[in-house]
Specification:
288 residues, globular, 11 helices, single chain, alpha+beta
Length: 288
């Protein structure tokens, strides 16, 4: 073999070896916290400020507890596509449910630990949603969590996500369908197509996809073309010549000193609340 080509192949081996899906759901949660969401503040459905140590700041997003204050006070990792959806057709599920699949089926464990399907949510919302299908919750019994736009409809077994993450839901479902062989009904497919048009890919979704691709070695092609690990994931201290901005403090538009700082917090820190209309321009009073 040509020596220069061999050298390139050998140098690429350590990078490729570092990219592998988490071995379990427990490992995936630790990895997601440390390497994907380490600088991102905003729960998936409600956009509440949060920390993994102290839980969500419910007042920051006007969240109103429905019934479970203890669970509402903690952050949980939700499967956007529930384990029930990707597990119920497996023999292991029919023989003993989720615990049996986790213990005996490697394909189930891989799907359960897939980082593309995991998002941090308020525990009560995660519990209420359970394995309900995504749909528009239109009945009079539907409950909305205060200013958080998510709705749960127990009578119809339906959960309606806020408009700003409906596209994220659709693209996650399509990824899980393609990657793990899960069937999506025609009705849900039509709904997801509409949601994806209404809520296009945003900057944080692209950055999240990049980070996960670096860890797992595969991206969600419905978000962006991220298939090969190519950049370090774990944050490093900025060099002296780097930007003076940082993600350690989550700021509002009123606290920004310039449009450049607002753009940094939107694009690098994933603070999507700065871009209320989702057009890619944050803090439009200063970024005109």
């Amino acid at each position: 073999m040509n020596l220069p080509i061999l050298a390139v192949l050998l140098l690429s081996l350590p990078t490729l070896a570092l990219s592998a899906p988490p071995a379990s759901f427990s490992a995936a949660k630790r990895i997601a916290e440390a390497q994907v969401y380490y600088d991102h503040s905003g729960t998936f459905y409600c956009g509440c400020d949060y920390s993994f140590e102290h839980g969500p700041d419910l007042a920051s997003c006007g969240y109103e507890v429905r019934k479970q204050p203890k669970r509402a006070a903690r952050i949980e990792w939700e499967h956007v596509m529930p384990a029930y959806d990707f597990g119920r057709s497996l023999q292991c599920w029919q023989d003993g449910g989720r615990d049996n699949c986790r213990a005996t089926d490697a394909a189930f464990r891989q799907a359960e630990a897939d980082l593309h399907n995991l998002v941090p949510t308020i525990g009560e919302v995660n519990g209420d949603r359970s394995n309900m299908r995504f749909a528009m919750a239109v009945s009079s019994d539907a409950y909305q969590y205060g200013q958080c736009q998510a709705k749960v409809d127990f009578s119809e077994r339906a959960f309606e996500p806020p408009a700003n993450v409906r596209g994220d839901v659709a693209r996650t479902y399509w990824y899980m369908r393609d990657t793990h062989g899960v069937t999506i009904s025609r009705q849900q497919q039509q709904l997801f197509e509409a949601w994806a048009r209404q809520d296009p890919v945003d900057a944080w979704e692209i950055e999240r996809n990049r980070r996960i691709a670096n860890i797992q070695g595969n991206g969600n092609r419905y978000v962006s073309d991220e298939t090969v690990p190519h950049q370090p994931v774990v944050p490093t201290a900025p060099a002296a010549t780097d930007t003076p901005f940082n993600c350690s403090t989550r700021k509002t538009c009123g606290a920004m000193t310039s449009c450049g700082e607002a753009l940094f917090h939107l694009r690098q820190c994933g603070n999507t609340r700065l871009d209320g209309d989702g057009d890619g321009t944050p803090c439009e009073a200063i970024c005109r």
